[in-house]
């Protein structure tokens, strides 16, 4: 017997009321045959701020140990921003494979950062050990209903912004919390397409296996999309409402970053540009007249890696 989807539209409506004063209403812009949702302009540089606020504001009481999380960078920056805004202490464990710019982004909002050798799962293990000592509330980046509902507030906002309706929304995937939020809102009303790097495919692997399974993680977007296993909470939604999963290679991701810079002077990190890469590489081909929204979901990278045309 399988469980019902862990988040529904009513959860997202409540999240919108809870976090509305704390998050930005990010813009949309037409880009030829596409609409871009510029969630990279959210506070702290990514959509993660929505889920972090909803999760923390839903807590009855934050203990003296404060808040704690493991993060490849974006969730850590979001939680650090939440802590700064609400006056709560925050400690973040991040993997050594994340870029330095993400550590600095976390620290600029006042959180303490501990860098752990390895990938996200190594940082998560360290965070678990630390929580046992401090008693802090651990805020998981994607595997909690309140976090997923917070991420889903973007979909509710997006539907209000796009005149004439949406046929398809294309979303990059790491551990699954973000796409689960969008899918929980749209359900069967809008086609939801997931995009993952060829070298990090936990959602696609779960769809093939019929349940979340371990995958290898590597590639240019591993710091933001490199989850080894799809979250259990996102899976309850993804299996019902994600219509198609596609993959892109690192070259396509880099090309999408360059397009966003050359066309709009937007600095998108690799994970933030992955959804656009799916359209530009042909990994996802819309039908004639299909109204497609591509979510540009993160900006936390060294600008020189995007703006310097000599960069690989």
**What does the overall shape look like?**
globular
CA-CA gap between termini: 48 Å
Spatial order of the strands forming the largest sheet? 1-2-10-7-8-9
Assign the CATH class of the largest domain. Answer: Alpha Beta
Domain unit count: 2
**Share of β-strand residues:** 15-25%
How many strand units? 10
What descriptive keywords fit this protein?
single chain; 312 residues; alpha/beta; Rossmann fold; 4-stranded parallel β-sheet; 13 helices; 15% strand
Description:
The chain is an alpha/beta fold and 312 residues long. It has two domains: 203 residues, Rossmann fold (3-Layer(aba) Sandwich); 89 residues, Rossmann fold. The protein is 44% helix and 15% strand. The chain contains 13 helices and ten strands. The protein has a six-stranded mixed beta sheet with strand order 1-2-10-7-8-9, sandwiched between helices. Helix 7 links the parallel strand 7 and strand 8. The protein is globular, with a radius of gyration of 18 Å. It starts with 8 loop residues before the first helix and ends in a 5-residue tail after the last helix.
